[in-house]
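A further point concerns the way the authors explain their paired sequence and structure data. For illustration, here is how one protein appears when written out as sequence plus structure tokens:
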Amino acid sequence: IRRVTAIMHEPTGSSDNPIRFTTGLTVTVPVHATFENVQNADCIRLKVHYPDQKSYLITPKKCHFTKLNPLHYKLISEVIISHSLWSDQSHVEISIVMETKDGETVSCQELCKPVKVPVAPKVAKR
């Protein structure tokens, strides 16, 4: 039995300046993390939780992972954020989860605390 750990280096969640983008368009948030005691990086997912309470799991590409040693990985990727339903300044939470399958049941275990990224979508002018 091994304890899998993840450390998210970016985004840090400490910035007071929100990421600004036009509602309906996209913006990317860089993600940089390291993992310890991971046997297979194929089960790592990025979880994005939007202000409207919807959550999405994103599978990073295999080329975004760098194997540092047999059980240690580094991830450098991006999360694309887009939404058209809300236009108020709020937070998008980004976290790292491990997807596990037990027969037909699929579950996700959080590997680190969610990082709150402030976003400020602005209404598109027509």
Notes: The mean pLDDT is 84. The chain has one domain: 5-121. The beta strands are 5-10, 19-22, 26-36, 44-49, 55-58, 65-69, 72-82, 90-102, 105-110, 115-122.
